[in-house]
Amino acid sequence: MKPNRDVTGIPVIVTIALLGVVVLVALGIWADRAMRSAVIDQFNAQQMILADVACKSIKEKFERLIQQLASFAKSETQDTHFDLKSWGVKSIRIMDCGIGKLFKKSEDYPELDKEILEKSCKLHEPTWFDTDNDNVQKPLGLLVVPTKENSQVLTFVDIYLFLKPILQEISSGKTGYAWLIDQHGRFVYHPMDAFVGQNAFVIREKVAPGLPYKSIYHIQNAMIRGERGMGRYWSAWHRDWVGPVEKLIAYTPVKPASPQGVFWSLAVVAPIWEVEGAVRSVGRKLFAFYAFVFLLLVGGGIFITYRERKWADNLEKLVEERTRELRQSEDRYRSLVESAEDFIFTVTQDGMIGSINSFMARFFGISPSDANNKPVYSLFPPDAASRLMEMVDYTLTNGRSCRKEIEVALKPTENPMFLSVTICPFGFEAHHQSVALCIARDLTEYRKLERQLINAEKLASLGTLAAGVAHEINNPLGVILGFCDLLKEKFPPGSEEYEDLLIIEKQGSLCKGVVENLLSFARKKGAENGGVDVNACIIELLRLVGHSLELDNIQVVTDLRENLPPIDADQGELQQVFLNLITNARAAMKKGGTLSIRTFSDHSKAQVIVEVADTGEGIPEEHMDRIFEPFFTTKPEGEGTGLGLFVTYGIVTKYGGAITCESPINRSEAGKGGTLFRITLPAVIQKEES
After folding, report:
1. 456 Cβ contact list (under 8 Å, min separation 6)
2. H or E segment at 443?
3. 3-class secondary-structure state, position 177
């Protein structure tokens, strides 16, 4: 009794399934870590922007204080026009360096020694010094402002009160905040008042000893050196939360006055749980997607294995019948082979073809008898022939069937074909030597459909991701442009500062345009106008760009069929689609050429078809699967953003249409180039009036 062949395949399927589960889990862990790292880096980058904005505000406040103190020194009455107490000013003194006399305006706070007075008279620009005073709770700083009258304004400032209005407004995420340390490692500002004036290295050990503070100590040493960076560390508290918590930090140095003075370091921190929720949500979705794909592949593998086993069993029975009744089996064999639209042929172990079926003979343009006793290399290219002979040797040596998929260009002028090749032993054609039966099935169209499905799902995922990324980028862009508008009001038009702000505003607006293009792909909205005439859109667009095409020596050829049914779409968005395709064609024809635009309708499918073709350089084979991805471009740096075809794809699919691309260079047509984009849009079905 012959064993059941299906049972022997079960362990293999189980093994493949287990390996797939391992790969799926590993892929999910990797994707989760990659997403977590990307989101954390993006969150920390936003914290760095907050730190930079705060540093700029601190420097501006110092500049305003210096201006007020300079005006105070020149005033005969020596009255200030701002609230000294709210600005943290504790003592103002004027030093006449010419006569060496110190005039006191307000109460003495700390005493000034002779060395500080002598050093102050040598300064020529505003300079800030940190001071050590055990008699005060909050850190004090000495600000020296030189004047043109050979005098110096010496001002003691409570740093905490001075910085609090700015730093207490900084909020990163929902619970993040900012703190500031000086060059000695002391907290100059911290939301917890007990920390102010304390050494940042010492106070942490006092509050919560035993935690791993190595990372924050390393970061604080970098801050004391005036470095700029991002990282993460462990802490024992966060606002009202008490206990170990990992935090994200972005830090940058702050120079309150001249380069000869001291500097501080500003840090913006937030707990890592601020971003973990979003990461977990995306990770679960990715894992579910991978699980679905895995189950789909396993199910497909089981189905294909079952079909292949069943087909192999039928073939084995057929061979046994042929050994008993040669004539009857030969008739059945020829009927089966000749009716199949596959490449079916026999090959000996030394590489000679025994016979081929009619379908294969018609494909190569020969008769079945012309291939008898000819080498495999006479029909197949060298690479494909070598792989076939390897499979034949394996089958005839081991007496077992084998199956592989190969990609081969059987004709030089056509695209490569994907063939599923099955080779099994075949024993009755020639008794004196071993013969293998080869069956090759064309899977090219199946692979094309599979590629389109993968690209469609990939672009759908990218659209969702692009919308999320665009919304996240809009927030810092709004902050940048908002502060830019505020700063423009502080400088007169035409000044150097005003022109610099205009440049910042322009570049920010460009970034905003890129974000809007990303959002336009994922945004789903109904058409504003129905019943759009495609021909009218194209004619109106060519009126606008026709002159520039003539200047580039590009000839426009149009074939616009009359009486096209209307399209239920927005006219502006359709013109954007055509403009993107014309712009790409223009870039591909740098030395001039012909731009062809053709429209026609398919009444049987209620569709309007638009074809845009050029005679440019064409698109290489390796780029065809990526042309609709965002930010992918083959243009030199500075000439393209890679969003044109991405947005075009989004608009076309939004209206239920499809867009495909063909490039002759992918078919190896010598002397021919160019690219053809074909857009298919559903037409509006108009009911006839009775």
Report:
1. none
2. none
3. strand
